[in-house]
Amino acid sequence: MILVTGGAGFIGANFVIDWLAATGEPVVNLDKLTYSGNLGNLAPVRDDRRHTFVRGDIGDRAAVASLLAAHRPRAVVNFAAETHVDRSIHGPDAFVKTNVAGTFELLEAIRAYWTALPQAERAAFRFLQVSTDEVYGTLAPDDPPFSETTPYAPNSPYSASKAAADHFVRACHHTYGLPTLTTNCSNNYGPRQFPEKLVPLMIANALAGKALPVYGDGQQVRDWLYVSDHCAAIRAVLERGRPGETYNVGGEAEMKNLDVVHTLCSVLARERPGPDYAALVTFVKDRPGHDRRYAIDARKIGRELGWRPTETFASGLAKTVRWYLDNTAWLAAIQTREYQSWISLQYAPAA
């Protein structure tokens, strides 16, 4: 069996669901259930005996040690993190606590567990850190995409906290020999994403007839990765990746944010005819220190592990929109008063 941390969040929950479907191997799922993680994300595996959910914090070393001793996982996949750049700008403390200190405590518990394993189990064990392309900083329009050797240059409290966590993972491998793997992914989208991120926010607001807030001029470029493709990449890295290595994971879909929003409006118009969704686009004050462009060179994972994305942006976005249209109860349940207050404060109209 494997231990997944942060498995009630967006990417983690999709990974757990896809993992059980693809491999059948049991999963213990540790999640703190903060605002963006909820058990509703795990509805498809609610009654699956191969899935064990435990509410807890990766920063609680004793609790993690107890889980490791009780279940003896052959691998740990760490999704647990605070992930929203905007929230990190307003309150970086939580990002340092979870992403830096929490990852350190998790690594210490795992290192003690791994050290005590019999030799064969020690050799087979893996720890996989799920990270982001944002640790690399920003790119100019003509710069080559980020590769695994691009120097880290984080520009937000969020990316700085993830960079620190990645460095601790690297140090654990090089100092202690812990068999670690790190993946740095581009912008994910798909089912179960908390609607403060671009794609689900636009879907939620469009369905409610509300403004579609776009930062600055909307010309920021991101590489878009469908979440199930990301999950398949993580499975490939866990199975065949070389300990100590980093693998970039991208969707081969660089797009400007404004183009993403207009494409989304077109899909919604086809799937749910009604208002002129594009007329709802509203430009708002830009995010402080907003990185202009991210792009991923994913040739290494393709060359070494045979992975590449199966979804185009068009096919992935169509699946995403359909999921949200089919799961309006899920969307309504997480649009709490706190969520509504955050959105209204965050997206003030541009002056």
Would you mind describing this structure in some detail?
This protein has helices spanning 10-22, 61-71, 85-90, 93-115, 119-124, 157-176, 198-207, 227-240, 257-271, 299-305, 313-326, 328-334, 337-346; strands at 2-5, 27-31, 51-55, 75-78, 126-132, 180-185, 187-189, 212-215, 221-226, 246-249, 254-256, 281-284. The protein has a domain at 2-194 and 225-252 and 294-311: NAD(P)-binding Rossmann-like Domain (Rossmann fold, 3-Layer(aba) Sandwich). The strands form three sheets. The protein has a seven-stranded parallel sheet, with helices on both faces. The model has no long low-confidence stretch (mean pLDDT 95). Helix 1 (10-22) links the parallel strand 1 and strand 2. The chain has 13 helices and twelve strands.
List the helices and strands and how they pair.
Elements: E1 2-5, H1 10-22, E2 27-31, E3 51-55, H2 61-71, E4 75-78, H3 85-90, H4 93-115, H5 119-124, E5 126-132, H6 157-176, E6 180-185, E7 187-189, H7 198-207, E8 212-215, E9 221-226, H8 227-240, E10 246-249, E11 254-256, H9 257-271, E12 281-284, H10 299-305, H11 313-326, H12 328-334, H13 337-346
Parallel strand pairs: 1-2, 1-4, 2-3, 4-5, 5-6, 6-10, 7-9, 8-12
Antiparallel strand pairs: 9-11
